[in-house]
Design goal:
The protein is mostly helical and 203 residues long. It has helices spanning 14-19, 32-41, 46-70, 74-202.
Length: 203
């Protein structure tokens, strides 16, 4: 027990080499000699201590290999980082292309809408101009009709005035004739009365 051996399993005994089936003993990840000595101080014999050490070394080695298989190497990280950058650049390019296409589509729709608005404005101006022309024509026709109606009314008024004047003239003529006839009657009647009075006076 007191004999010191250099680094247990750095040059593993044949019994341990036949027991280990995973990795070479030179790649143990802890101080196997110190571990065996500690187990011997705890009361185990050399064979038991070395058996436990071997089993523990295999467990540690398997765990490290599992961890290593799940870990990503720096080269893999750089590759993944490069892939992500490429994917990001491609995504950015696609987004820019989509944005440009959307902007072009939006501009086209805006231009089309602007053209449609201008066309509607022109059509509205034509309709307003046509309506104004129609209203002016109707007003002119109405003014002409009113002038014609006024002339007709004026002619009718003149005709009525003429008729009234004619009636007044006829009435005046009738009155004059009546006066003359009355005067003649009065003269004749007066003359006859004077003649009869004279005759009576003479008789």
């Amino acid at each position: 027990m007191s004999q010191i051996i250099p680094r247990v399993f750095r040059s593993a005994p044949a019994s341990l080499r036949s027991f280990s089936t995973t990795r070479p003993s030179a790649e143990f990840h802890f101080d196997t000699h110190h571990f065996v000595q500690r187990l011997e101080r705890e009361g185990l014999n050399r064979a038991q201590a070395e058996g436990i050490m071997t089993a523990l070394a295999e467990v540690v080695d398997e765990s490290i290999r599992n961890m290593s298989s799940n870990m990503v190497t720096k080269a893999d990280q750089e590759k993944q980082h490069y892939t992500q950058q490429v994917d990001f650049a491609q995504l950015k390019s696609e987004l820019l292309l989509v944005s440009k296409n959307d902007l072009a589509s939006l501009k086209g729709a805006h231009d089309q809408l602007q053209t449609e608005v201008e066309r509607l404005k022109a059509r509205l101006r034509e309709e307003v101009t046509r309506t104004q022309a129609g209203v002016r024509l109707d007003l002119n026709l109405e003014k002409g009709r009113m002038r014609e109606e006024g002339k007709k009314q004026e002619l009718k008024v003149r005709e009525v005035d003429t008729r009234i004047e004619q009636e007044i003239a006829a009435l005046r003529t009738g009155i004059q004739m009546s006066k003359a006839a009355t005067l003649q009657v009065l003269v004749v009647t007066g003359g006859a009365a004077l003649l009869m009075a004279y005759v009576r006076f003479r008789a």
